[in-house]
Amino acid sequence: MIRCQITDGTAHLNEEDWFAGLAPDVEFLQVREKGLSARDLGRVVRRALAVGPRILVNDRTDVAVATGAAGVHLRGDSIRPSELRKIVPAGFVITVACHSEADCLECAGADYAILSPVFSPLSKQDTRPALGLDTLRRIVRVSPVPVIALGGITGGTAAECIAAGAVGVAGITLFRR
After folding, report:
1. Buried b / exposed e along 100-126 (16+ C-beta atoms within 10 A)
2. Band of the pLDDT at 32, cuts 50, 70, 90?
3. Which helix (H) or strand (E) holds 65?
4. pLDDT of 142 strictly over 90
5. Is 62 helix (H, G, I), strand (E, B) or coil?
6. Angle at the Cα of 42 (from 39 to 47), degrees rounded to 5?
7. Backbone angles phi and psi of 36, in degrees to 5
């Protein structure tokens, strides 16, 4: 099972506490720090590379490539993964935010679709209705790439997501230390 910790956007508040909250035993760490400049994001990513998991930079391919990160996580309105794949290094990991079956059907070229919200998020307000396990199960069957479940995932519901066909789970609250 793939486990992907997503950072909470607070690196700029207290970097030492932020780094102390990173889980070194996950497969991916998605650095989602929208408030940082490219320079500061690059510095944080370089330091995070020493923590252990493979680093995905949220929607900043330039920073991901420049720092030697494992890959990038694209927002739904970003460049298509199939176009990005043409210019990134071999082995570069691309994940894409998906919120519906239609989104997942358009993520050819990505390595993973990160589908949310499967359940109501625990770390933030989200106006989108939770998709639920039945929708997750249906999308897993039609998605051209493996699906990672996100949104309201707990230790108890992670197994349900895997049983529904997801190859992994992602979250902020799930991995808080």
Report:
1. ebebbebbebbbbbbbbbbbebeeeee
2. very high
3. helix 61-67
4. yes
5. helix
6. 130
7. -95, 145
Taking the CA atoms of residue 9, residue 116, residue 173 and residue 158 in that order, the dihedral angle to the nearest 10 degrees is -150
- At residue 51 the predicted structure's pLDDT band, cuts being 50, 70 and 90, is confident
Select from 3.20.20.70, 3.90.1720.10, 2.60.120.10, 3.40.50.1820 the CATH code of 2-175. 3.20.20.70
pLDDT bin (cut points 50, 70, 90) of residue 177 is low
> Identity (one letter) of the amino acid at 111?
D
pTM for the whole thing?
A: 0.95
- Return the domain boundaries, the chain: 2-175
Q: Which residue has the tokens 């071999």?
A: 90
3-state helix, strand, coil in the chain (%, to 5): 30, 20, 45
